[in-house]
Design a protein that fits this description.
The chain is of the alpha/beta class. The protein has a single domain, classed as Metallo-beta-lactamase, Chain A. Helices cover 32% and strands 23% of the residues. It has 9 helices and 14 strands. The strands form 3 sheets. Strands 3-4-5-6-7-8-9 form a 7-stranded mixed sheet. A 5-stranded mixed sheet has the order 10-11-12-13-14, with no helix packed on it. The protein has a two-stranded antiparallel sheet with strand order 1-2. Strand 13, helix 6 and strand 14 form a beta-alpha-beta unit. Helix 6 packs antiparallel against helix 7 and helix 7 packs across helix 9. The longest helix has 23 residues. The termini are far apart. The structure holds zinc ion. The site of zinc ion (ZN) has 6 residues, from loops.
């Protein structure tokens, strides 16, 4: 892929050769009104808030989709990203950090995101191999432990760390006045979630954070999940019901003394088989629940 780096008014702008751009699936955007957009692309859902104070962005997908996403942000917001929040460290959410930072974005995240991206805490990728250390330009420059509030574009944007769930460094982002919530990967809408036990994630913690969040949203809240279509409180309720049922079914096997192999063979998640997808099969989610609950 041919990338050209230029500098306009001191802001580095990445330009992608049109031929290379054509090879990538075009990102799809959803307009939530009031300058808020969602970009659905190859990885996690990107949130964009555009306004007079600058473009605020949540997550940046993969390195190889970063230039196309920057172009899309420029198209919908009329400017490049100024503030960037990573909901967690995974490569399908923070993989574009180096490209976005080089284009002028200042990166904010929970302190464990920086620790994992910088290698201060060695991490295992979702492929089971040691995760590569990211270049320093990709590391968050501002880290928080509990959260941070932004007061930009005439709104309050509340970034809040949640306890161990998908990983040990998850944050959710509330656009308070428009009542829009980006839940990061603590919500996979309509599909089995990834619960990354190797990054400090927790099965029971994941369910607990989903329930806490459910108690904080209302019927008018529009929820941007980490993966899947923009959702409502009712969609979140369906996901919680699945996870609660699935945990109970696998926990019953553990309490009966079944091994992992016997549990998988018994298909305790059969009632929720429709939640299986290309990345998380019924068997693999059974394995995650078993290993997480057995801890
Ligand atoms: Zn993730």
């Amino acid at each position: 892929m041919k990338l050209l780096l230029s500098s306009i008014s001191g802001i580095a702008v990445l330009l992608l050769a049109p031929a290379a751009l054509a090879q990538l699936p075009a990102p799809k955007t959803v307009d939530l009104g009031g300058g808020l957009h969602v970009i659905h692309g190859q990885g996690g859902n990107i949130g964009v808030s555009a306004g007079p104070d600058g473009v605020f962005v949540i997550d940046d997908q993969y390195p190889n989709s970063a230039a196309a996403n920057l172009a899309k942000i420029q198209e919908i917001a009329g400017a490049g990203p100024r503030y960037l929040v990573n909901t967690h460290w995974h490569g399908d959410h923070a993989g574009g950090n180096a490209t976005f930072a080089s284009a002028g974005a200042m990166i904010f995240a929970h302190e464990n995101v920086r620790k994992r991206l910088s290698g201060e805490v060695p991490s295992i990728g979702l492929d089971g191999k040691p995760a590569a250390i990211s270049p320093e330009v990709a590391w968050p420059v501002l880290t928080f432990t509990q959260g941070v509030d932004f007061h930009v574009n005439d709104e309050t944007i509340r970034v809040k760390h949640v306890s161990a769930s998908h990983t040990d460094g998850d944050a959710m982002v509330w656009f308070v006045e428009p009542n829009v919530l980006h839940m990061g990967d603590v919500f996979f809408n309509g599909i089995f979630p990834v619960i990354d036990l190797g990054s400090g994630g927790s099965v029971r913690g994941y369910l607990a954070v989903m329930k806490e969040t459910y108690a904080q949203v209302n019927d008018a809240t529009r929820i941007i999940p980490g993966h899947g279509e923009v959702a409502t409180k009712a969609d979140l309720a369906r996901q919680i019901a699945m996870l609660e049922g699935a945990i109970a079914a696998v926990d019953a096997r553990i309490k009966a003394g079944d091994t992992l192999e016997k549990t998988i063979a018994a298909r305790p998640l059969k009632p929720w088989s429709a939640f299986a997808w290309s990345f998380i099969s019924e068997d693999s989610f059974t394995r995650t629940l078993y290993n997480g609950l057995k801890k």
